[in-house]
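Fresh eyes needed here. Kindly weigh in on this sequence plus structure tokens:
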Amino acid sequence: MGKQERRARRRERLIERWEASGESAARFARRARVSVATLWYWKRRAGEKAVKQKLVPVQLFTEPAEGREAPRVELVLVDGRRLLIPSDVPTDGLVSILRALSTC
């Protein structure tokens, strides 16, 4: 394991300990001897990495299969919920749906 990987793993463990501690960012940062800004930066970066890892490949079909409904997009959320969106939904409508889901 290289130096960069060790540092990344150390940051991940630190964020995990912070989340498990229930402490405020300021208090935990003081104990860990890092700045609050650095702690939040590491947490944000860890979150971005987690989101990237949750993406999955998709297949798009332009025509309905025999005996099936018109084309639609199926969005499966991480928690297993499914959202079926008709393919003719206007772009602004789809943007509204995605914004609403990002707050859930």
In short: The chain has a mean pLDDT of 78. The helical segments are 3-21, 25-32, 36-53, 91-102.
